[in-house]
Amino acid sequence: MAVDFAGLMKTLERMANLKTIPPREILDDLLDTVTPLLNSENPLVRPLDREGLSGGMLILRQDIPTLIIPDLHGRRDFMMDFLNWNYGSGPVLEGLLKDELQIVCVGDGFHTEKRGAQRWQEAFQEYALAFKRHRHMDREMADSMGVMVMVMLLKRSFPDNFHFLKGNHENIKNENNLSDRSFGKYAYEGAMVREWVEIFLGQDFLNDWSDFENALPIFVQGDRFLISHAEPLRFHSREEIIEYRSDRTITFDLSWTGNDQSEPGTVEAMLNAFLPGVVNSYYFGGHRPVQNLYLTRAGGRYVQIHNPEREIVALVKPDEEIDLDMIIKDIKQEG
Ligand SMILES: [Mn+2]
To answer: How far is the centre of ligand 1, averaged over its atoms, from the C-alpha of 168 (Å)?
Structure first.
């Protein structure tokens, strides 16, 4: 599919700068096209489950670099920054366009974190009065939905080379079930988002957005690395992950694990099972914030790269050894 670079960049910039949520016709059009795309991806990239739907696991190309992007949490500026970042062979968006680069976002597009703490307090006052006034919550939703609309635009433009995993914040219904848990940290983020969407966009929209979230993949196999949103809670096989739609606990196990919650040996067992014989292999994730560029767990094999204060990326190239101090960068600091 031919993608118009200038046109796409212009649309992305527009979405990055909107002070409101994107226009309804854009949201509906994206949901109508991207969810079906996620349910029937190229089976070489995302093997099908027994029902013939795309499974939970992506298998990356081995001939081009992979850019791993940690939790976005409404950071539209981070999205634009990494799309414009020169990864060594030109800007990232151009690499996607030329089919020379693939991107994996580890999930969590929704809910601004600490930098939005004050606004969450203001928005909570609005929520307490049933969003009779809603200026602050509108701005929060502009950030969260803006990021995800940019994700959908990129997925639709580069279906085989752009991927976004489901994080625990991709839970617009704020559900408590096998795969998801409701969320509240700086306020009642999960409940506030759900109510805002029900009031201003409606129940059908809420259902459509939830369907989109649940069609997202949850796990990546690269040539020398694996990725999921969080550290795996316990071992899951290739077959189990592909069949993730019929056992929703697998989604939970790969997206909610806190530090020191993973069963000992899980990361190593999964690296051995998915990448047998590969030396110097790593499992990347986001979810729990780190200081500086990265932190390792699981005997140095699990690598956390989510620092909310910085713009961290990991760039794995097919012909270069994975040296964590070389491949993990702060693109903002780089200029
Ligand atoms: Mn998370």
So the answer is: 5
- Rounded to the nearest whole angstrom, what is the distance from the C-alpha of residue 84 to the centroid of ligand 1? 25
| Å from CA of 2 to ligand 1 middle | 34
pLDDT at residue 335, rounded to an integer: 57
Location of structure tokens 């001939």: 63
Tokens (6 digits) for 165: 């995993």
**Residues 6 or more apart from 260 whose CB is under 8 A from it?**
none
Mean of the pLDDT values across residues 173-189?
93
Please check the confidence at residue 273 and state whether its pLDDT lies above 70. Answer: yes
Q: How far is the CA of 58 from the centre of ligand 1 (A)?
A: 19
The number of angstroms, rounded, from the C-alpha of 265 to the middle of its chain's C-alpha atoms is 25
Q: How many CB atoms lie within 10 A of CB 15?
A: 23
Indicate if the pLDDT at residue 1 is higher than 60.
Answer: no
What is the distance in A from the centroid of ligand 1 to the CA of 277? 30
Strand partners, 221: 59, 226
> Model's pTM, two decimal places?
0.97
- Domains of the chain, by residue range, sit at 5-330
Distance 230 CA to ligand 1 centre (A): 7
Handedness of CA 297, 257, 255, 154 (dihedral sign): negative
Task: Match domain 5-330 to its CATH number in 3.30.70.20, 3.40.228.10, 3.30.930.10, 3.60.21.10.
Answer: 3.60.21.10
Q: How far is the CA of 90 from the centre of ligand 1 (A)?
A: 30
Ligand 1 centroid from CA 144, angstroms = 14
Give the distance (Å) from ligand 1 centre to CA of residue 96. Answer: 26
